[in-house]
Amino acid sequence: MKKFSYEARDQSSGKIVKASVQADSESAAARLLSEQGFNPLSIKETDESTGFFSKLTGRITMKDKIVFTRQLATLIGAGLPLAQSLRTIVDQTENKQLQGIAQEVLTAVEGGKSLSEAFSKRKDVFGPIFIALVSAGEASGTLDQSLQRVATQQEKDAAVMSKIKGALTYPIIVLFVILGVVVFMLVTVVPQVENLYDDLGKSLPLLTQIMVDAAKIVTSWWWVILIVVGIGIYFLLQYFKTESGIKAKDSFKLNVPIFKGLFRKLYMARFARTGQTLLSTGVSMLDTLKITGDALNNTIVQGSIVRAAEKVKGGKELSTALQPEDYILPLVPQMIKIGEQSGRIDEMMGKTAQVYEDELDEEIKTISTMIEPLLMVVLAVVAGGMVGAILFPIYSLVNGINV
């Protein structure tokens, strides 16, 4: 898809409109504008910068989307017409990329499209949950309430992911520091020990010799190491884009020691919270399961949801369909069963989500508490090995001289 800026005359009002649109070609952009009720006056392809700094500063964050959704819900709830609400948001939005997308949505709405149809053209930004809730809100006449639910859903997801990233950031930083210290010692200190032994005409102890050989490899072939590591990372990232790579990565998350409980509770919280949001807005059970499966961001758990959906389609209750699935934690079907019996599945899924979100907080605290002593042990072993490899031969020389 290419981006085109255009100037067109609105056929209904006669006003001149300036905005942007995404299409495969200039002619496709012209057809799209004509379908939306505009007479194109000029269409030019926009030369978008793809530099690193541009991507970093122009990207749409979760906070941007939450603010956008809250503002739209507030304006619609205050009784403003949809087009006027979108126009106000276009004027107030500071993020240029999001502003352009809001303008595209406004253009589509003014051209006769429904809000959900306008948003569906940018699924890459808004996602299936957002579009499904907007569509349900339009059908039920509660668009502002649906948008508020979307914003709440986004905030809860963002809060959970922020906690998980926080728990993972500390050990990653410490490991990089350890690696940096090891490289520094290999490059600066170890060669001096070797020179000292060479001057005295003595052979190095085994551990020190290993360190010396490693230092020589690092100093002489550092560029080869960087190239090999870079190529390895590139091919690993490419593999993770394949079907088998995605499955391997998703399976690893669900079974990796220490973190597997965290990831499993994360997916259950996301499944239950998304299901509650969709069902409470009037989305059908089958559509809810499909959208929720897509939103989990894990193909293994998504497969469990898809299999359960097929059973529900065949007449089984959702609690029964979820029961035999390996990666669906037991509390989920149990709570859904209560909801089925009381006729309040959405409420029970909300309570289930709250349980797992609370457990996630405790899991993150537990993992953080466990990781600190483990990192200290790793640091002690690495530091002890380095010190032993450097100081042991020096002490041996000193003792030899004294004798």
Describe this structure in words.
The chain has 403 residues and is mainly alpha-helical. Among the domains are: 48 residues; 161 residues, Type II secretion system (T2SS), domain F (Receptor-associated Protein). It has 17 helices and three strands. The longest helix is centred in the last third of the chain and has 58 residues. It starts with a strand and ends with a helix. About 2% of the residues have low confidence.
Task: Spell out the blueprint of helices and strands.
Elements: E1 2-10, E2 16-23, H1 26-35, E3 38-45, H2 52-58, H3 62-77, H4 82-92, H5 96-110, H6 115-120, H7 123-140, H8 143-188, H9 190-200, H10 206-239, H11 243-255, H12 260-281, H13 285-295, H14 299-313, H15 318-322, H16 331-342, H17 345-402
Antiparallel strand pairs: 1-2, 1-3
Helix pairs in contact: 3-4, 3-8, 4-5, 7-8, 7-12, 7-13, 8-12, 8-17, 10-17, 11-12, 12-13, 12-17, 13-14, 16-17
Estimated structural class? mainly alpha
- How far apart the termini lie comes to 80 Å
Outline the low-pLDDT stretches. 49-57
N-to-C order of helices and strands: EEHEHHHHHHHHHHHHHHHH
CATH topology of the domain at 243-403: Receptor-associated Protein
Our count of helices gives 17
Q: What percentage of amino acids are in beta strands?
A: 5-15%
CATH architecture of the domain at 243-403: Up-down Bundle
The gross shape turns out to be extended
- Summarize the biggest pleated sheet: 3 strands, antiparallel
The CATH homologous superfamily of the domain at 243-403 is called Type II secretion system (T2SS), domain F
